[in-house]
Amino acid sequence: MSTALVILAAGKGTRMNSDLPKVLHPIGQAPMLAHALRAGQSLEPERTVVVAGHEAELVQNALSDLSQDAQVVLQVEQLGTAHAVARAQDALNGFSGNVIILYGDTPFIQPETLEAMIAARASHDVVVLGFEAADPARYGRLVMEGGDLARIVEFKDASPEERDINLCNSGLICCDARVLFELVDTVDNKNASGEYYLTDIVGIARDKGLSATVVTCDESETLGINSRVELARAEVIFQSRARAALIEDGVMLMAPDTVHLALDTVIGRDAVVEPNVVFGPGVTVESGATIRAFSHLEGCHVSRGAVVGPYARLRPGTELAEDTRIGNFVEIKNATLAEGSKVNHLSYIGDARIGAFSNIGAGTITCNYDGVMKHQTEIGARVFIGSDTMLIAPVRIGDDAMTGSGSVITQDVEAGALALSRPAQVNKPGAAIKLNDILKHRKKQRDKGQS
Ligand code: UD1
Ligand code: MG
After folding, report:
1. pLDDT tens digit string along 333-371?
2. Domain total for the chain?
3. Pick the catalytic residue: 35, 54, 296, 345?
4. Ligand 1: does its nearest atom lie under 6 Å from the Cβ of 78?
5. How far is the CA of 103 from the centre of ligand 1 (A)?
């Protein structure tokens, strides 16, 4: 049976106190929306529809980075969750199968929970995801009759007895597409909020002789984000779960609480991550690599056996082959280092390609930017770049070549050549002592004049 996702994300998120739409606030350096999307995509949905309203254009832009085939539909006025779902009908035209409704601001839903909802659909027409709330507060209450769900009542409309129910509505619903839109069509807004409640579809379904049930999950999964305080808490939860998952997968985190991960961080078995490392988006670290303390990585790939840091910065487009070495205070951007090459101290390597087993001396800089354009540096295999070499790009250094320390390299160096570009050294015997005497004499004269 095919599945489609409808992700509700039109709310303004007033309590975030922000110009950014709520669903684009990041957790694990990915928009909140990406988390819900990821859980849903594990079901390999045939279609994905995101209902956006507030700053819909920003949501659309973010979504095009996150998913090839998700479609945004507009809900201009936010008249309630049923009204929002109805906006998705045209986008699901011709689709038949289960629709799962998710919230863009509920990032911790697990794929297994969605699978359990789909499974429950085999025996019931409407499946609602519920949870036992520690503090039911203003959540919608799930009114059960026997083993079945009779209806959902919103807090504002609930009687005192109904408010005593602890089984609450997460908001997630799974239903056959055709049935869903038929039910949503009949929802009205005659309630305490004057909104079209999606939750009303349960009572309507039951009146029509359809069945409804509840699948439950842990409350922590249904956590919704409404304020920056909740966002900060969600980040803490995300980090601790992501670290635990890596440890479970065989990664050695020396001080887990100090390692900051992104939603898409991938680290292989037996890799070692020392304390205080930050992983930005788009990092993969292969099995057996070592990321040493205080390093910052984003948009890069680190191969097996490579050692990065301490105090290294890998920026987007960095590709480190096997057994490479990146040492302290080295920044690499948009550069490929072939097997066994080393940049061990105090260097900037940007827009470059370095061949296998080359050694880049301390303080070397690829001068890639002329103030207007970026240029490429090509370094061959087994090259030795002397310390403090300035490589003025565009420039090529051939295989097995060397540059003398302190050289400023403005022209290509052919394979096997030694390039030197620095003034010749002159030694003047005794001149240091003479100069020192002159300077001391001058200082004495000046001090006398001032007293
Ligand atoms: C909703 C449920 C409630 C449940 C709670 C769980 C209804 C009527 N109530 O209440 O039973 O316990 O979630 O958190 O559904 N949205 C739109 N367009 C709209 C309205 C909402 O896209 O017109 C989106 C919001 O951006 C949000 C989600 O739908 O992501 C839920 O809306 P919200 O206003 O937070 O509903 P609650 O009142 O919390
Ligand atoms: Mg809410």
Report:
1. 999 999 999 999 999 999 999 999 999 999 999 999 999
2. 2
3. 345
4. yes
5. 8
